[in-house]
Amino acid sequence: MKFKVNNEEVYASTGGRPFDKNKPLIIFVHGSGLTHMTWVLQTRYFAFHGYSVLALDMPGHGLSGGKSLKSIEDMADWIKAVIDAVDYKEASLVGHSQGCLVTIECTSRYPDKIKTLSLMGGAGAIPMNPELLSLAENNDPKAVDLMMDWAHGPAGHFGGHPVPGLYHINTGGMLAKSRTIKDTLGVDFRACDNYKNGFEAAKKIKIPTLSILATDDKMCPVKEGKKLADLIEGSKVDIIDNCGHMMLLEEADRVLKVLKKFITTNYPSKFK
Amino acid sequence: MSTKKNNPETIALHGGDYRSDPTTTSVAVPLYRTTSYQFNNTDHAANLFALKEFGNIYTRIMNPTNDVLEKRVAALEGGLASVTVGSGQAASTFAIMNVCQSGDNFISSTDLYGGTVNLFTHTLKKLGIECRYADPADPKNFEKLIDEKTRCFYAETLPNPYLRVFPIKEVSDIGRKHNIPLIMDNTAAPVICKPIEHGAAVVVHSLTKFIGGHGTVIGGCLVDGGNFDWTADPKRQPLFNEPDMSYGGAKWGEVVPQLTGANVSFAVRARVVLLRDLGAPLAPDNAWGIIQGLETAPLRMKQHCSNADKVVDFLKKHKNVARVIYPTLHKGEIAARSKKYLKGGNGALVGIELKGGVEAGKKFIEALKMFYHVANIGDARSLAIHPATTTHSQLTEEELLAAGVTPGYVRLSIGIEHPDDIIADLDQALTESSKTKLKAVS
Amino acid sequence: MSDKKKTTNPNTYKFDTLSLHAGYQPHKNAGSRQVPIYQTTSYLFDDVDHAAALFNLERGGHIYSRISNPTVGVLEERVASLEGGTAALATSSGMSAIFLTVMTLCEAGDHLVVSSQLYGGTVNLFRLTLPKFGIKCTFVKPRDTEGFKKAIQKNTKGIFGELVGNPGNEIMNMPEIAKIAHDAGIPLMVDATYQTPYLCKPFEHGADIVIHSLTKWMAGHGSSMAGILVEGGKFDWMQNDKFPTMTKPYEGYHGLSFAEEFGPTAFTMKARAEGMRDFGPCLSPQNAWNVLQGIETLSVRMKKHCSNAEEMVKYLLDHKSVAWVSHPSVPDHPDHELAKKLLPNGRGSMIAFGIKGGKDAGVAFINNVKLASHLANVGDTRTLVIHPASGTHSQMDEATLKFAGLSHDMIRLSVGIEDINDIKNDFEIGFRAAIKPRLVSNQ
To answer: What is the ipTM for the molecules in this complex?
Structure first.
């Protein structure tokens, strides 16, 4: 669906069901240069089972209007503005990669708005490889190819998408190339590289938090993810083997299974 | 061997003209896993392409292994010819597209498999073909919907979920008055019903189901009854009476009987036009797999039906079952149809309405230990599904109710296991389905 | 990111590796190194929720082998990976892949612009069968790039062509025609059966959907029928209102919009969820496995096909019984330069040549070669020959033949991977018989 935030048009997938303001809200925040479509195998489940879902396209990404936001802090404030714009008092957040930085920052800033936090392939800081950053800022499509290479584990490089017939390395690459690379990926990478407040923000989080990490994640390795999780009181960690950073595509079913259990336990819906 | 006798057990093993392989004398049907066929010489090639002579050109259009299956199924159904295709859905698609073009309509029974409803209601509409639905409770409903663009009638012999046996002769008679052929999907009732004997012009099958029986391969076929005059009213059947420019202006209704000496225009056109252009051939491996299944189909059908009878007796008495749906349990005219059209059994499909609605349905399915929870029917194994949450979940609520799917309805396809084991599994699952979870009082 | 690699080149797997590995992970399949054949129709659901989730496209997985199958799925991913596509859908023949593509894109009242140099079966589909279902086509000669633009109408939903036309070896200027299509807001569909991704990846030149008859070079062995449609993922279905069935809520799936939900894989998702579900031309798992065996050797076969073809071109050009030779490797072929650009790894193994002595010589040649097989297929590992004027197209008169790009003296040759000298020796027998056709018995 489309709606306005700060006078700019925003697109969010509602997971194939009409957006229903009575149901508890889950917001999905994508990673650098990507779009709402990375979540297709998680959002539809929740939308069909009692939740209202918004898988956002961040400003300047996917089908959303506006320009890409330049800092993780701006993105965190923008998520809060989304919650206000759809007239909700609270929401659960799910983030992937850069989306983890955004949701951690948002939760630390607006603790009473956020009910649960789910982090996939998250870390407290995501310093950028300088060559990758410069390729992205120079609009070089090689930046996307490199990101897709590093973001997939060895098994993921051979495909194995749970949806028959889909080949996910190329699908992810096509998403990241759907808009001008320097305006999406370039801006996002710079924002990640600049962001230093992750560990401090994590210390302030008091809500139920889940970290899903993957053994073959080269971008946010298990060690980094655990370091972040250790700072969040009572947070749960789940580790998926034979899987890389693009866990929501590489191991969509296993991610959904863990996420389903966490959200339905800590943020139950009375709807079916 | 000629199969003059009409015994399905014998037809299933010998039907058609395959006796042994001419080169090697192999009795088992050889699997011709080839795409192409060497021409004897250029004249042979020319004759094949001009349809002056029939023979193998390319496996998309025909294959010797498939040919054995085609002739055997045609014999089983009492038809003259048959064409195999990649799935039962492809058979339904071809059956309609072989007689209808954009701007035409056809009349279908409302009692229909969900996949066929999607094809008829949404997808064929995009090709400009309109499906009009008639309630088969009264055959006259079909007559009321006919106009000058109506090309065929379509129905299933033994359709889920009501399991009302279709009035084949009654509707076929109406059709024949107007030169409209009746196409019967006989997937659920091979051996126990032969729609061509009752006037159907064409029979389609999903061979995946009872004829294959093993649940290993997907396949379908169209059987041409050879009993319909496609040329009697040229305006009614333009595709069989207007020249086809892709075959030098041939008029299918005329040229096929001239070439073959048989009234098999429907089958030939489906093969040389639709398989040629739309594809969807059956893989020879799958044809071979179905031939193996067909050998025991008549024996299996007996066991399916007798097991189903026992299951029905058991379910009727069970306290957690609100209603049992089975062809013989209808009343009056509808029940009489099952006596008239089904011979040697009443099929393997049984419906139940559970007391306790959608929750009981879910619990029942999940408690079954031997039954498989899959989207299929006609496997040798017993199968169960809860349509409201699965096969019919793409339909809107009105479509659901129109299709007779209520929240507590569970569809069973009774297998050929020992009946005591089938009943025991149903019994324990019914007990589980009525248990309520202990909940804290809030 | 914390990756410390100094290289700036991605280490994703290359063509020869993908042709052996893509789409399959042994650790998820009992450790089996080779792809298992899942000869099953149905799949057990974990519970009622799982079943509903699959039917609602909430989760990936298999319901019924008409719609998807794990063995077929490996083939689909493998071909998608080789083409550089996002998704693929395998079908029971190349023709059903074309049909499903058209049905996913069009409905009654729509129009397509189609190259006129196509495989005969495809011509029949577009010229005679699709119009019966309200879909009209305008044919344009493959070299008439401007003609494609002129033929586009308000209701045109796409452009379709074979990269190298059959049988005249005319090459369509894919990059320019893609631009024409995209300027009009419609996709370009390319049948690349004769090239395989080893010779050309049409997505790199602007195509949006690639179609193969896998029966041919991809499988190579001539044992199984199969087809596939592959999606490039770049085409924006939402840029205009030409594709309401892709962008608007779809009644068949709870109001799902394929373009919004599935983006770069929307076309394949719709082709499977609607076209395959309803029309049913599914590929058998056994055939998918057979094709996978063929694809394992695609690179080595294609190299040999192309080198044998270039040898045969030289041989035919020098032969006193040959009037003319058509193959993009011949320097005076009108598309010689374009072929270098679009087919850098080889120009394919289809050759057409004229035999001196016309139709009678052609008949004698075909009836006397011993090694080359006379049949209605192309792209087998074995050398195949056919004389269209006396075989496939024997009903046509001179004018119709000419329209189809054929002539009485034309022999079509699909060069196999036998030893090149054996093929040449066989042709010598054919040519000798053709010189004195009346003295050689017709079998």
So the answer is: 0.90
